[in-house]
Structure formats: C-alpha cells, structure tokens
Write a structure and sequence with these properties.
Blueprint lengths: L3 E7 L2 E7 L9 H15 L6 E6 L20 H20 L5 E5 L2 E3 L1 H7 L3 E5 L3 E3 L11 H11 L1 H10 L2 E3 H6 L5 E3 L4 H13 L3 H16 L4 H14 L7 H11 L7
Parallel strand pairs: 2-3, 3-4, 4-6, 5-7, 6-9
Antiparallel strand pairs: 1-2, 7-8
Helix pairs in contact: 1-2, 4-5, 8-9
Length: about 260
C-alpha cells in the first residue's frame, strides 16, 4: 500500500492531508478508500466547523498513482469498479459533507487532485500552483461523473481545454477563470487559509450546514426550476425547523443589540 489520507482535529477545525510525497501525493486506491472513510467520519462530527484539505510536502495532488494502473485498468469490470466505487466513493463523501471544505493548494493539482479540489467550497492557492488533467497523454478519458464535477467547478471552456488539449494552467490564470477564491504567495498560504477558517468559525454552524444542503439541491436539479421544485420538496419540509433554535435567536438578537454573536 502506498500513501495515506490523514486526519487531524484541532478543536473545531479538521485538517485532511493527502500524503504520498514520493509521488507528489498521487492518489492510490487505498487513499481513495481512506478519503471516503475520513469524510464519512467528519460528516458525523457535530462539533466541527470547517475542514481544510491539503497535500504533504509542497504539492496538493499530482493525480492518480499510475504505478497501480496495470493491475486493474485493462479489464472493463475492474476499471469500472475503480472509477465508480473507489474514486467516486471518495469524491461523493466530500460532496455529501455539510461542513465547509477549504482547499489549501500548492504545487501540482492535477487529475485526481483537480477532482478533489473541485469538491471543496473555497479554494486558496499559492502563486506557483499548477492545474490540469493531461490524462489523454496516458491514453484514457476522465470518467463521466468526474468530468461533470470538474466541468461544473472550472467551467466548460476550461474543462474542454484541459481534457482535449492537455492544457496546464497557472494559479493566476485559473483564478481569473473563477476556479480559485484567492491566490497568495507561498509564505502567506497557511495564514490565508487560517483567516478563512477563523471567519467560518465565527458564524452560525447550523446555518452553514443548511446552506450546503441547499447548494446540493440546486446542483442535483441542474438549476432548472421544475427540477428544483421536485428535488427540493423533501428538503422544504424540514428546512425552516431552525426557526426557534438558539443559534437563530442569538444571531438576530446580537444584531439588534449591536454586539457580536456567540455561536
């Protein structure tokens, strides 16, 4: 087994680290399973406020661990299992997480790394970070659900450029295209991520979790009104139950009383 996905919990903040540094944190099959397990655990942790996803040793994630590929990629059944169970299982666990996920990106963010970053709510990178999915050079396409995820995050034109011409973009360029929230100097990256997490930590946690659930409904419905009405019907049964919650009262009362809320 190569690589690991590690979890560190510091108070209300969780840090998830992609660790396979000799391979620029390329994702092995075992790491995909660990990613799924880690985010299932985080989803079940009511006291947490935010999650940071980062790579070890100067890179976010350079893609998949290609050294494993000859063992399963050349048979349709095992290839399908890899993408639909291993990879999508990890990505879906991230998408299902109600906690805000912040990506701390440096170095290579390629292929699988781009997919993992696409599951994050806020993405902050250093100026030297590089983004792409040049897998056509390896003779295979991006799996359909993974391609849809990336296209939604980076935009259709950028996804086409990456997958059809193996384009690799710098942080400044992909920020201009809307994929990144911030680009900072490498030395400033941890502080920038900490500042965002501190802001999240001062907000109402239940409200944030409900926002993420609403985002999922919109995405699943494809932003089409008829589909949204259908998908949202179950959500709407419960969405306003926070009305009498302590959090709700504290937020409104603190504003009226001109003081900082205590969540």
């Amino acid at each position: 087994m190569t690589g690991a996905v590690t979890l560190e919990i510091l108070g209300t903040l969780a840090r998830v680290t992609l660790s396979n540094p000799r391979k620029l944190n390329a994702m092995s099959r075992a790491m995909w399973a660990e990613l799924r397990a880690v985010f299932a655990r985080l989803q079940a942790s009511p006291l947490l406020r935010a999650v940071v996803v980062q790579g070890e040793g100067g890179n976010f994630c350079a893609g998949g661990d290609i050294s494993e590929y000859p063992f399963f990629r050349f048979a349709e059944s095992t290839l399908r299992e890899f993408h639909e169970t291993d990879v999508w299982g990890g990505l879906q666990a991230m998408l299902d997480c109600d906690l805000p996920i912040v990506a701390q990106i440096e170095g290579n963010c390629m292929g699988a790394g781009l997919e993992i970053a696409s599951c994050c709510d806020i993405r902050i990178a250093c100026t030297s970070a590089r983004f792409g999915a040049p897998i056509s050079r390896l003779g295979f396409p991006m799996a359909p659900r993974e391609a849809a995820l990336v296209m939604r995050a980076v935009g259709e034109l950028t996804a086409r450029e990456m997958l059809l011409s193996a384009a690799v973009l710098g942080a400044d360029e992909i920020e201009q295209r809307g994929f990144l929230n911030q680009v900072v100097a490498l030395a400033d990256l941890p502080a920038a991520v900490d500042a965002v997490c501190a802001r999240i930590g001062g907000l109402a946690p239940t409200a944030i979790r409900l926002n993420k659930k609403s985002f999922r409904v919109l995405i699943e419905a494809g932003y089409k009104k008829a589909a949204i009405d259908s998908v949202a019907s179950d959500l709407l049964k419960d969405v306003y139950r926070y009305a009498d919650s302590e959090e709700h009262r504290e937020g409104v009362n603190a504003f009226v009383q001109k003081r900082e809320p205590q969540f």
